[in-house]
Amino acid sequence: SKQKGLDTPHFFDPQMQASVRARVALEEDIRAGITMSEFVLYFQPQFNGQQLIGAEVLLRWRHGSGFVSPDKFITTAEQSNLILPLGNWVLSQACKQLAEWAKRPETAHLTLSVNVSPKQFKHDQFVDIVLQAITSSGAPANRLVIELTEGVLLENIENAIERMTQLRAYGVSFSLDDFGTGYSSLSYLQRLPLTEVKIDRSFLHDIDSNASGASIVRTIVSLGHSMGLKVVAEGIESQTQIDYLKTCDCFLWQGYFIGEPQPIESLEKLLVQTN
Ligand code: C2E
Ligand code: CA
Ligand code: CA
Ligand code: CA
Fold it and tell me: Are 145 and 111 in contact (CB under 8 A)?
């Protein structure tokens, strides 16, 4: 095959050109999707034992013939800053839902956990944007949980602590997503005003497949508890996993086995059934 000249600028690489074109096209599709209201929210139930206590809010994109999964567009949305309008929309919709639930005694206790991407969290206006979503909807701030990943929290820990503390003062809580997959020291994590950690679903998967996986889950749960945090197990796919989590004293559960991400109407039906 033909050797590329050293003076060939890399952006003439046809393969790279194709992937740039694909990314630009996806960006345009996301932009159009926002204006055409193609994005919808799904809600994955969270349980405390048998009791439904809330849901994680998961973005879905109704595009073309079916649903596009967040794994296919969140990264591009993040790279192109489109995550900002998209993320604000998710936050404001979640707050509107909390405000609705607050009106009825059967639903007033439910919480919503919203995923916030690094770029959203680092944005200058982040605290104001969250407070704006809360005040304009009338949502009870103490029912809103913000899920963050380790990387963004530790990139600038002082700044993260300040933002989180400001929102904590209004009652907003914070969950550390994908707990156990990062590499940061516990003394660092301990400085953060978290209320909860979510054990990454890869560890849950390992409960079934090997013995050391099971002991890792037990260790993570007790670690979280010893830091005074709630510990949510996500990615639960079997009764075996539930039984094992009980022996670890972990009763906060999320996963396909007990409830898939679903439209709001079916979540509310589920609430009636489990009551
Ligand atoms: P995540 O925050 O770790 O969310 C949990 C993911 O695990 C969801 O995938 C959910 O559908 C899936 N899941 C739930 N139960 C099970 C189970 O039992 N087994 C397995 N294998 N998977 C399970 P989803 O909805 O495709 O979301 C993927 C990722 O996209 C999320 O991972 C989150 O990082 C991101 N994401 C989703 N919605 C938003 C959003 O509104 N904003 C931002 N910034 N990111 C979002
Ligand atoms: Ca999450
Ligand atoms: Ca997760
Ligand atoms: Ca994740």
Answer: yes
What's the pLDDT tens digit per position in 74-118?
A: 999 999 999 999 999 999 999 999 999 999 999 999 999 999 999
> How far does residue 58's CA lie from ligand 1's centre (Å)?
6
How many angstroms does the Cα of residue 260 sit away from the middle of ligand 1? Answer: 11
Q: What residue's CA is closest to ligand 1, atom 12?
A: 235
Q: What protein residues have CB closer than 5 angstroms to ion ligand 2?
A: 115, 147, 177
Q: Mind listing the pLDDT tens digit for each residue in 195-239?
A: 999 999 999 888 888 778 899 999 999 999 999 999 999 999 999
Its ipTM equals: 0.96
Q: Please give the Cα distance from 120 to 115 (Å, whole number).
A: 10
